[in-house]
Amino acid sequence: MLPNHEKIDPRVRRTRQSIEQAFVELVRERGFQAISVQDIAGRAGINRATFYAHFPDKFDLLNQFTRDSFQKEVDQRMFNACHFSMDNLRELIVVVCEFVGETHDHCAVSEQQFQSMVANQVRTQITGLLDHWLETAALIEDARIPPGLAAIAASWAIYGLATEWSRAKRTPPVEQYADLVLPLVATNLGLTVHA
């Protein structure tokens, strides 16, 4: 992955943004499986060698784009997420639901490989954030549950619940859905939500 965006030459940043924009457009139009590096490079107005200077292949582009996009959403929406609170956990559920919904909108067809790669990147980041929260706050009420294992269980629960919400045509509204599933996610973290 390239270094921090603030330290990247503006031309390199613009080329990378062009590649990402072309990628998003093509995935929306044709689906992930149907596009090639040549298609992405052509749409971005670059040659394949320039594409390969930024990404080894379209799979790496998908992984980096998903990771960066999700991290940006988390950073923008969870301004005080450096610590655990039920409000932050609830906001994380909202962010994941909305991100999953938007991701499903971006893909022209339902593609298992595309969805699986996106899910992997998002769950990894959710797990890292939850693990950080659990380690720094020593929250788990049952000492037999290792924090890392609780974070993995909760990340799968959050992503799975977000996927089901997206498939159910995003009903109920995301805020209401987050309230509904918060106790389920908290249970995966070994916590109890008190009314």
Number of domains: 2
| Major sheet description | none
Shape: elongated
Uncertain segments are 1-5
* Distance, first to last CA: 44 Å
Helix and strand content put the structural class at mainly alpha
How many strand segments?
A: 0
The portion of residues forming beta strands comes to under 5%
| Average pLDDT number | 87
What CATH architecture of the largest domain do you see? Orthogonal Bundle
Helix content percent band: over 70%
Radius of gyration of CA atoms, rounded to a whole number: 18 Å
Strand and helix order: HHHHHHHH
Number of helical segments with 4 or more residues = 8
What is the name of the CATH class of the largest domain? Mainly Alpha
CATH-defined topology of the largest domain? Tetracycline Repressor, domain 2
